[in-house]
Amino acid sequence: MAPATAPSPLPGPLADLAPLLDAGGYLAVGVLVVLDNCGIPVPGQTILVVAAAYAGTGRTDLAGVVAVAVAAAVAGDCLGYLIGRSGGRAFVHRWGRYVLLTPERFRRGEEFFARRGDLVVLLARFVDVLRQTNGIIAGTAGMPWWRFLLCNTLGAILWVGVWAALGYAAGTRIGALYAWLTRFQLYALIAVALLAAVLTARHIRRRPRRRDAGS
Q1: Which residues contact 148 (CB under 8 A, 6 or more apart)?
Q2: CB atoms < 10 A from the CB of 18, how many?
Q3: How many C-beta neighbours within 10 Å does residue 21 have?
Q4: Using CA atoms, how far apart are residues 112 and 130, in angstroms rounded to an integer?
Q5: Comparing C-alpha atoms, which of 139, 87, 105, 84 is closest to residue 207?
Q6: What are the angstrom distances between the C-alpha of 144 and each of 5, 130, 141, 184?
Q7: DSSP secondary-structure letter at 12?
Q8: What are the sequence ranges of the domains in the chain?
Q9: In angstroms, rounded to a whole number, what is the distance separating the alpha carbons of residues 197 and 19?
Q10: Angle between helices 103-123 and 130-140 (to 10 degrees)
Q11: Are 19 and 61 in contact (CB under 8 A)?
Q12: CA atoms 139, 140, 143, 144: torsion sign
């Protein structure tokens, strides 16, 4: 019988996490995904892609990767929610003014989250920064727990499903695909920031008119 061919090494930056995955296996995936989803900027998404690419070459089991990543993503966001729920509001009221987050702005943020929070939590994982903070924001804004848990779970399934499918399908060719897709994450983050800036500017311009109308 001919010897089995050794799997090709992962390309580019994804190869940096290969030793960690080799040593920690599914535990490494779970720990990094939990941390990445509760406010700590670690490469949780990257290790998910690497683990799925490993499954594409037969080195891990795709079902195991998906199960661990979904559970870890839900747990991480729930931890962020509890952090925001227990201490976020007090932190904002004490220190928010130093970063221009006044109580009035925080109140408007809560109102926005009350209207659009479901969609934010559902899709936040596809945008860096929002992936790490959406649970904390939801908890701080007082989003109802049952709504958060539902959107959190659906969002985790969607996020893990997309990246695991891409990683598994591409196998060791995932490097170029991952780099291409992460560029769109940057564009999405810039678009969100610009939209927030436009909405804030519109609100500031309207405030003097409202005061004049009320006088």
Answers
A1: 77, 81, 117, 121, 135, 138, 139
A2: 16
A3: 23
A4: 15
A5: 105
A6: 52, 19, 9, 31
A7: G
A8: 12-204
A9: 42
A10: 130
A11: no
A12: positive
The single-letter DSSP state of residue 11 is: P
Q: How confident is the model at residue 5 (pLDDT cuts 50, 70, 90)?
A: very low
Closest listed residue to residue 169, CA positions, set 9, 29, 49, 37? 49
User: How far apart are alpha carbons 156 and 143 in whole angstroms?
Assistant: 18
Q: How many of the other CB atoms lie within 10 Å of CB of 117?
A: 21
Mean pLDDT score of the chain: 77
- Round to whole Å and give the CA distance between 160 and 131: 12
Helix H segments across the chain?
18-24, 26-36, 44-56, 62-83, 89-95, 103-123, 130-140, 145-170, 174-214
Q: Are 192 and 126 in contact, with CB atoms under 8 Å apart?
A: no
| Residue recorded with tokens 């009035």 | 104
Q: Return the structure tokens found at 5.
A: 């061919």
Taking the alpha carbons at both ends of the chain, their separation in whole angstroms is: 91
Angle at 190 between CA 185 and CA 192, to 5 degrees: 95
Q: Model's pTM, two decimal places?
A: 0.71
Give residue-wise pLDDT tens across range 73-102.
999 999 989 988 887 777 666 665 654 556
